[in-house]
Amino acid sequence: MKTFKRLLGYATPLHHYIPEYVIYTLIGIIFGMVNFAMLIPLLTVIFNQVGEVPNTLPHPAFSFSINYFVDLFNYYFYSFIRASGSKQSALYFVCAVIGVCITIANAGRYMSSRVMVRLKMTMLSRLRNNLYLKFTSLPMGYYSQQTKGDLLSTMTNDVQEIESNVINAIQILLRDPFIIIGYFAALFYLSVNLTLFTIVFFPVSGLLISYVSKKLKQKGWFSQELLGKILNVTEETLSGIRIIQSFTAERFMRDKFSEVDHRFTKVSKAMYNQRELASPISEILGVIVIVILVIYGGTLVLNGSDLLNGATFMTYLVFYSQIMQPAKNISTAITTMQKGIVASERIFRILDADISITEKPNALPITSFQENITYNNVSFKYEQHDVLKHIQLTIKKGQMIALVGRSGAGKSTMADILPRFYDVNEGAIRIDGTDIREFKLHDLRSMIGVVSQEAILFNDTVLNNIAFGQPDADREAIIHAAKIANAHEFIEQLENGYDTFIGDRGLKLSGGQRQRLTIARAIFKNPPILILDEATSALDTESEKLVQAALDKLMQNRTTIVIAHRLSTIQFASEIVVMDQGLIKERGTHEQLLQQDGIYHKLVEMQEFK
Ligand SMILES: Nc1ncnc2c1ncn2[C@@H]1O[C@H](COP(=O)(O)OP(=O)(O)OP(=O)(O)O)[C@@H](O)[C@H]1O
């Protein structure tokens, strides 16, 4: 119930929808009922039981009761027959009333559906946007614990589940109880005795349905989790198809997929079978009641009882049959809702995830720095083991620091904690003496440009990829950045130049071209601090030269931390920091370190650097 209430909260303010919805629904129900009530005069006319037409009939005095409306109808009904002099014309009159009622009832239903569509779309759009907002604000640490497939499944399937299950259920739960109440009122009006029979049926079916729905909820969780796994395997396969085929691992991946899919199919089958059970249960219970009704009511009519005549009994049965559908709808809605509630819980689990990287209420602005960046006694761990241990490092403005060391030494982690992708566990990183956690997060990150090993581009134009996040950027400035990054020439040769869409993750470009675009992006951003994960190893010599030249220009007049893979970069570094198992083991210039005959010397000898 709590989840349901919270979900409704995404459609607030509810008073924009509910009163309007109730009014349209009531119009639909009342005119729908009048429509069926027309059966009584219709049958009376057809079976020629109209009887004597009274000479004068007083216009009934207004009161808000069924009797008033019945009398009003009779008044016009008999007046019509009297005026036309034929009972046949009474048929036309009744048919005309039915036509008008059907039109109004359907207009009411249509309008109420429109209100619900509005509510539904508002709620879903807010949910999707909140999820996306959360995705963009969750810290990196969150993503190493979650799989992409799970998160994508939440954005697509879980939101879809809410659309198809919860919202339809809300629509039914806000409409069908009114229908049942209305029809029950009419049934009581037509025959109290018969109606008392039917009431027994409702609590019995209610109990059965609630049992089935509880079971469904457990299975719902499980099936969505398995669906997330299916998406995961698919996503991995699509992005790694080259590797899968070259390692001839197709069979292995197919087996992996089939195994998850098999489990998902099994759980889904059981769940759908259980869901389908709700409908036959209520149908059987309903038919049993109808049989009892027909026997009891039919006997009254056959015996010529004063309590019931043929036309009223027939109408009664029609009215009763109209209750069956909404009753069934409600029971189905309650069961399907469970599935939707499970989906909502999965969404809320993400929305409630802790954003551990936050800024303080009175965070300081920062747009530039004057002196230095310092790592003061910094320790950090992802999970249990310290990945960085008591790091002391000062980077003066304008310096280029090269981080070197074996794989897993902690170099990338050193770079990741500067823009606060992760927060340090101990110690502090300071810019001009102020802890970076004191600054506005947006300001801090705006000061830092990152060029990573993997060229990450977006499915957009070249222009928008260079001026990423700045839709109104000056075209000339973008072209200028591209020229510095040695990217202008190849961009000009693209189909639509700077306005060319570069495809999913820039797949239409070569590795070197992609890398030069990311460099142009960093040049355009023009940040005072640069983090460079040197990424030239995957490129051929020609391409490498172009990228290197672009990088050299990018580094000019900036404070740079390079995770260095190349001797040519390292040689020019102001200071080389040699890391090993989370510790700074050696530091100094290239010449100084070579003389020390330590780790660095070995790395160079082993030709770890090209
Ligand atoms: N998201 C993460 N969750 C848990 N552990 C991590 C995570 N990222 C890195 N590690 C671990 O932290 C240690 C340091 O990793 P880091 O990426 O900083 O090393 P590196 O020196 O940059 O290595 P490489 O040169 O191979 O990129 C490694 O042991 C790695 O397994």
UniProtKB/TrEMBL annotation:
Q: Which GO terms describe its molecular function?
A: ABC-type oligopeptide transporter activity; ATP binding; ATP hydrolysis activity
One Pfam entry for this protein is: ABC_tran
Listed A to Z, the keywords are:
ATP-binding, Membrane, Nucleotide-binding, Transmembrane, Transmembrane helix
What are the ABC transporter domain coordinates in residue numbering? 373-606
> Record's Gene Ontology CC terms?
plasma membrane
Q: Where in the cell is it found?
A: Cell membrane
* N-terminal signal peptide: none
Query: What kind of membrane protein is this, topologically?
Result: Multi-pass membrane protein
Q: Which domain of life is it from?
A: Bacteria
Q: Which SUPFAM superfamilies does this chain map to?
A: ABC transporter transmembrane region (SSF90123), P-loop containing nucleoside triphosphate hydrolases (SSF52540)
For this protein, the record's Gene3D superfamilies field holds:
ABC transporter type 1, transmembrane domain, P-loop containing nucleotide triphosphate hydrolases
Annotated transmembrane regions: 21-47, 59-78, 90-111, 180-209, 284-302
- Could you tell me which residue ranges the ABC transmembrane type-1 domain spans? 60-339
Q: Does the keyword Calcium apply?
A: no
**Record's keyword annotation contains Membrane:** yes
What is the designated name of this protein? Subfamily B ATP-binding cassette protein MsbA
Query: Which organism was this protein described from?
Result: Chitinophaga polysaccharea
